[in-house]
From TrEMBL:
Nucleotide-binding among keywords: no
One function term, GO molecular function aspect: sequence-specific DNA binding
InterPro entries named among the record's database cross-references: AraC_XylS_family_regulators, Homeodomain-like_sf, HTH_AraC, HTH_AraC-typ_CS, Tscrpt_reg_AraC-type_HTH
SMART domains: HTH_ARAC (SM00342)
Classification lineage: Bacteria, Pseudomonadati, Pseudomonadota, Alphaproteobacteria, Hyphomicrobiales
PANTHER family reported for this sequence: ARAC SUBFAMILY (PTHR46796:SF6), HTH-TYPE TRANSCRIPTIONAL ACTIVATOR RHAS-RELATED (PTHR46796)
Signal peptide: none
Pfam family, one: HTH_18
Protein source organism: Aquibium oceanicum
Entry keyword set: DNA-binding, Transcription, Transcription regulation
Domain HTH araC/xylS-type: 205-303
Name of the protein: HTH araC/xylS-type domain-containing protein
Amino acid sequence: MGFSSGTENLVYQPGYADFYLKSQYGIFPQEHRSLAGASLLNMIMVDQQRHDFSDPAVSELIVSFPVVSAPCSYAWDMGFGWSSVRSQAGDLIVVPPHTESRWRVSGARRLLVFAIPVEIVRKVLGPECPADLTSAFETISGSSRPDALTQQVMLKLWEMGRGEEPPSRIMAESVLTTLVCQVLSLSQGAAETAGSGAMPPRNMKRLIEYVDAHLHEDIGLAELAEIAGWGVRHFARVFQQTMGQTPHRWVMDRRVSRAKYLLTQREMSLAEIAFTCGFADQSHFTTCFRRSTGFTPLRWRNGGFSGA
């Protein structure tokens, strides 16, 4: 299957399908197909069982859905916290290009997985292709409700890859184009629905990484807004709507969370922990910690609240 007079010369490094065969996923029964023997679109039908696996970032758009699912739940983390849902047949599951992810699945399910190289996504979308494909598909990253058209197109492509009668290049391109355009349309629709009322996961990830790396410092609202790429007023409003608390309260909670961990390690004094976590002094540390947990730091340490 080609997408232009030069597609045949494109060379793709081993991607998600190769990873799937050689990683822990290799223990699951799975069938791999590609269209007309090409490596441009790799498809996997896999019978998964309970697992907790990590996936690497690849230069491919990963689109999948459970064809059949036992009563179970699954959770994912793409760098900005865990999300969890009950598994149901047809759930649309998307991992944007260049995105690491971790998955916890509590039961059995048959999953149809497509790995579409970013080069092909760009060729399919042409001049309308977003410059940043990671951000373009981020609003539906993880799991979302079933989409009938996406399911139908993916099942059609899967059947076309059986190899008994290779499909025509034009037909294969047309069906794949429909798939890519539909997934992008769903993502754009989700972004419009969210509007300015939700913090994009990508922005939240940047904030978490920055705050955790600078907890020992004084972190101001303007500083956080700049990292998010917004004005202070807009940032404060969107953050409150998304997180249900002010940026200041959120930063303080992360300071307390880090302090909890350090208290369980018993390697640092209370004064050292206060400094490391960015509290003004030990007295300030004690006040904030008690307000958050109901205990003083010393009581927490001596009480053995490990992992709380």
